[in-house]
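Continuing the series of single-chain predictions for the mutant panel. This is the parent chain; the variants come on the following pages.
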Amino acid sequence: MFSGIIAAVGRITHLTPREVGYRLHVDGGGLKLDDVSLGDSIAHNGVCLTVVAREGNTFAVDVSPETLSCTVGLDAPGPVNLEKALRLNDVIGGHLVSGHVDGVGEVLRFDPVGDNRLLEIRAPKEIAKFIARKGSIVVDGTSLTTSKVNLEVDLIARYCERLLAAERE
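Parent structure:
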């Protein structure tokens, strides 16, 4: 689990093709990695990936074709939002985030509004039904509050929908 509070912006330095998917080689940027071990989870633009190698301030994770099919930003070198997994005694500054991305939205606008910014995103129909006014959503790993219909959806909303669908059957 994650909080959606980005700890650092790292950089995917290169990708190595694997039999299935890719191995991403990541420079952790300002992310403190001294307590990161093999098998730990780190969110990359909101996607939970498992550390398979680490040396100094760099580490590697594997990404599957399935993950690549429902995300953007993990298939080429470039900047990446990073957050280490929560520990049970950590403060949750955002909201509970699983790191299991639901789909890709389209940015329609990003405009200044006073000291803030208005980010308007078109969400796919199958995701939009889970987005509630003043609810939570994750965009590239960042926990945000929706003001209208602004892309991991709220964890509780997912389970409520599943339970209601089961009752209808």
